[in-house]
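Q:
My hope is that you can spare some time for a protein that puzzles me. I hope you can help me see how the letters and the tokens relate. Thank you; the sequence and its tokens follow:
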Amino acid sequence: PLYSTDFRTLDGWRTVELPKVERNAAVELMSEPNGSRLRLRADAAATALLLERKFGTAEVGRIRWKWRAIQLPETGDASRKAGDDYVLRVMVLFENTGGLSGLFDSLFGGDLMPDSSIHYVWSAEPLPASGMMSPYTERVRIVGRRSGPDASAGWQEETVDPARDYRSLFG
């Protein structure tokens, strides 16, 4: 693989504090019988972890991860800013080709402003797997991967192809 981590350390990862979020989620490295895990605990909180490494679109291929949700938000409405609440989100950021304001300015305080991104989410309510535009900006697409409490029964594996998804979502 081009990149792989077992989360024994957070080397190469940076915690990004979200200025418009009152509390940051707790980030812990956990050792479990089948390997190390990254654990995020968020109760009315959020945190972003950024892999500080760039990849060319052609070299990335597929991205694979496992995730598990212990508790889901009660509701959510991805079509409204007020409903933008997901238990888990994996963001793939695409290179900045010009000034972008809006979501990334407000979330990252100007620290990180990609040209576009795809957010693969685990939500309380079903979202289209074909993707939808973020209520914050036209430069973000939200793709539903898992939803609801019935999916929270253990580790779930995901495999995505960001380059293919980018072509499909952004043209």
User: Anything to note?
Assistant: The first helix runs from residue 57 to 60. The first strand starts at residue 13 and ends at 16. Confidence is low (pLDDT under 50) at residues 98-111.
